[in-house]
Amino acid sequence: MVNEFGKGRVFVAGDACHVHSPTGGQGMNSGVQDSFNLAWKLALVHKGLAPRSVLESYSQERLRVIASTLNKTTVLFKKELSGKSKAPTHLSRGYELRMFSINYRDSPLVLDEKYPERDLEDVDAYRSGDDGTVQGGDRAPDAPCMTYLNQDTRTTLFDIFKPNHHTALVFSGSGGEASITQILETLREYSSGLVKSILILTGSSSFGAPSELVDVVTVVDTEGYAYKNYVVEPQDGPTVVIVRPDGYIGALVTSGSKGIKDYFSLILL
To answer: Quick one: fold of 6-98?
Structure first.
């Protein structure tokens, strides 16, 4: 693999910067992730919405991931060809090869107010509600069985996430209408084309969307999957999870408006 994924106006991705053994089928998947990581940043810089320094995070985020992936697949490849193991353990494909545990926790573009001590250990974000937690920089997990407020229409977070904007998930928790309104008003300062806000209420919530913001997209976590998978307790104060266009958590905010502004100051001009 190369030492840098980008320099000046030149960027490389996929097979142009790392070559894999066929073990695990990680080559194409890794190349797609490279491209996705770079694309949304490049788009913001090209439109004059983000500083060029944002592009430096491409290499910073992907180098560690690719080095780790190459190490895992190389070990498996050598085991398969060694002929020394009589047990089928060398054929095992653990969760680490599912790529769900890839994270950018050490990225300069990640803000985590909930877990300021960044642990780089692989954690499967899709099992977060069962055996772990979700931190800033992790792959954002899905949450099924949510319904739009005052509607029978069901949706999931993966239906809501899109590759052309950030998605701000506002978990109301035990927060009152005033605190929720202030958070949503702060998010409205950013163009709807850049940030889409989603208010997530608990199934037992006693209030709907803030009266001053009737146009806010509001969903009810009827089965509790969103709060469980993002490890937010209903009795907690408002928590904002900002999901990047590439599906990774850019920020875990517990300080409200201040944390939101702090995060976007890392990304936008």
So the answer is: FAD/NAD(P)-binding domain (3.50.50)
